[in-house]
Design a protein that fits this description.
single chain, globular
Length: 188
């Protein structure tokens, strides 16, 4: 298994066509997708025919960016994914994302994988700014953003076609600029 990045406990690797079932199981858990679509599972055919091919295409479109399968080193278990996607309209900016199986929550994996991608983005990919978004009420994800070093930037409201519980409070955007990342890293 060729890795993209490794941390002390994680291997982040490219997705393959063999990951359909792992992605389906991840998105079938209503707790995992609660703040994404209200907890509805993603149909297996949509993962196989749309999502996974899009993930695979990203690797060649913008090298170094995309979604990476998160594998626990100790067990080889699929834990979820992390993403660092380039913003085409804002050169030097990328968006951080993550989605982990419920069994991986509260164990520091989200922060560990996010920090690895952010550090790589600034050191190897020439990023000047990393952003992340979530629902205002998603306190767990917000805490990961903060532990990763991102700072609250704003609350905003979008007109979602399907309103989900908590959506009335809007979404939040966090950011980390290269200068602040460098200062934080020197202080560690």
């Amino acid at each position: 298994m060729a890795s993209y990045l490794e941390t002390s406990r994680l291997i982040l690797r490219r997705f393959t066509a063999d990951d359909v079932d792992a992605l389906y199981d991840l998105d079938a858990d209503p707790a995992v997708t609660r703040f994404i679509n209200g907890g509805r599972p993603t149909p297996r055919a949509e993962i196989r025919d749309e999502l996974l091919p899009r993930f695979l295409a990203q690797y060649d479109e913008v090298p170094g960016f995309g979604r990476w399968a998160a594998i626990e080193k100790a067990t080889g278990a699929f834990l979820g994914w992390f993403a660092l996607t380039a913003e085409p309209d804002e050169p030097g900016t990328a968006e951080l994302g993550y989605r982990l199986r419920r069994e991986a929550w509260g164990r520091g994996y989200a922060t560990e994988g996010s920090r690895a991608l952010v550090d790589n983005g600034f050191t190897e990919l020439g990023m000047r700014r990393v952003t992340a978004n979530t629902m205002t009420v998603n306190t767990g994800s917000r805490r990961v953003m903060e532990k990763t070093g991102l700072r609250f930037l704003r609350t905003f409201f979008l007109d979602w076609p399907d309103q989900i519980e908590g959506g009335e409070h809007g979404d939040v955007e966090y950011e980390l600029r290269h200068e602040q990342w460098a200062q934080d890293r020197a202080a560690r």
